[in-house]
């Protein structure tokens, strides 16, 4: 088994001379102090947040854990307060849609140097799964300068790997033609869009696609199992978000979790209720801090994603940490009166098991009704699916749950429900609107 290419890359980037956690953590402590000073000196937001923080007294990771958190709503309120450079130095601005009702949006800023830092990571991250024999199709946005597809294409070019950036999946017929004409062997995309495409274009998927990289959202286990067993693909997971600079970590050939971008980011897992560090093997909220980010450094940024650090060393032999796969958003659930919880990931494992389902939405009303709408290719299958899915859902929870299930036909020019956004278990207000 090939060791993750990220190890040698991180050793080169950090300049440490030994393969040890202690050496890497000493480097990270230095970078954390540098980030704190830079942000405090140049950002209006961090000048206030860190006003009472004695940065020079922080000599250990535990000392850094006393630094205040940064929250997504802080960015929404006034993103320009995070800027550490003049606006003329900003080469890319990403506006992120949110579920808030105030109309405020998160804006993330990047300089040319920030974008190049991401290209560097993408080059070595993609080397975890590709080589020069591969032809890669990217089903992510890529027309704009500095978009994720644009950066991936530039990164793969550095490894002399051919890459076509198509954009998010909208027309399966067009994507099928691209795969056949270009001999695509590796596909990068959004989990639900890849599942959809594989189910309606199973013949071309089975014939051409050997490797899949899933990114931008939580990846259901049943989805990976189907791609591996039905199409004999090797399925890799990538974890990242725009706030991280798109890239955070990627699986190696062991496929047991992400090796993290530890030379550019410091990751924590915390108890979301107390903010205290979680122990290895304990699920909690992912928190990160950036190193060397010029435009918009982020310090102890709370992602809302749930994951854990692995207790075990990776089979590839690296000394890098392994983060087990993210299992979804902490808030992506409903809590019943009997304190039982229903998570979107649990519905995924039930509903996506059926290959006739191309997509679905789930919404929970305050009248204790779970409303599920299935996207199906053939409507005559609905009655049988409805009965089986309802039986499995009702058997999974003790609460007295009312279930309303409908279906809609698949549209051939595909507009998937989640686009580039993360999928949600929707909570409806009494009047029928979404509960933000």
UniProtKB/TrEMBL annotation:
Pfam families in alphabetical order: AMP-binding (PF00501)
AMP-dependent synthetase/ligase domain location: 97-288
Superkingdom as given in the UniProt entry: Bacteria
Name of this chain's protein: AMP-dependent synthetase/ligase domain-containing protein
Naturally occurring in which organism (per UniProt): Lacrimispora amygdalina
């Amino acid at each position: 088994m090939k060791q993750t290419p990220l190890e040698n890359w991180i050793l080169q980037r950090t300049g440490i001379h030994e393969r040890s956690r202690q050496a890497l953590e000493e480097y990270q402590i230095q970078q954390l102090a540098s980030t704190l000073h830079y942000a405090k000196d140049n950002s209006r937001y961090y000048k206030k947040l860190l006003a009472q923080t004695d940065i020079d007294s922080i000599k250990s990771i535990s000392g850094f854990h006393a630094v205040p958190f940064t929250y997504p709503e802080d960015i929404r309120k006034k993103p320009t307060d995070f800027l550490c450079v003049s606006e003329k130095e900003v080469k890319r601005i990403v506006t992120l849609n949110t579920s808030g009702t105030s109309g405020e949006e998160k804006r993330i800023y990047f300089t040319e140097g920030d974008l190049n830092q991401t290209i560097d990571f993408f080059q070595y991250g993609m080397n975890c799964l590709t080589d020069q024999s591969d032809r890669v199709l990217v089903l992510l946005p890529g027309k704009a300068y500095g978009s994720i597809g644009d950066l991936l294409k530039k990164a793969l070019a550095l490894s002399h790997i051919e890459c076509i950036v198509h954009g998010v999946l909208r027309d399966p017929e067009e994507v099928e033609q691209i795969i056949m004409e270009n001999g695509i062997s590796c596909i990068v995309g959004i989990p639900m869009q890849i599942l959809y495409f594989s189910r309606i274009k199973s013949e071309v998927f089975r014939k051409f696609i050997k490797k899949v990289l899933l990114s931008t959202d939580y990846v259901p286990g049943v989805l990976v199992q189907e791609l591996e067993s039905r199409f004999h693909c090797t399925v890799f997971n990538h974890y990242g978000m725009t706030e991280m600079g798109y890239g955070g970590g990627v699986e190696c050939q062991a496929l047991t979790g992400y090796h993290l971008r530890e030379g550019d980011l410091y990751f924590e897992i915390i108890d979301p209720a107390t903010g205290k560090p979680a122990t290895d093997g304990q699920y909690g909220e992912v928190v990160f801090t950036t190193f060397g980010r010029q435009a918009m450094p982020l310090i102890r940024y709370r992602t809302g994603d749930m994951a854990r650090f692995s207790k075990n060393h990776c089979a590839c032999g690296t000394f890098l940490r392994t983060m087990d796969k993210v299992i979804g958003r902490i808030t992506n659930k409903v809590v019943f009166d009997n304190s039982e919880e229903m998570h979107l990931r649990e519905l995924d494992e039930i509903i996506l098991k059926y290959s006739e389902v191309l997509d679905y939405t789930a919404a929970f009303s305050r009248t204790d009704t779970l409303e599920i709408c299935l996207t199906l290719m053939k409507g005559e299958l609905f009655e049988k699916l409805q009965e089986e899915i309802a039986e499995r859902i009702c058997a999974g929870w003790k609460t007295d749950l009312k279930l309303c299930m409908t279906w809609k036909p698949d549209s051939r020019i595909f507009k998937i429900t989640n686009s580039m956004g993360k999928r949600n278990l929707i909570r409806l207000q009494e009047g029928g609107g979404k509960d933000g």
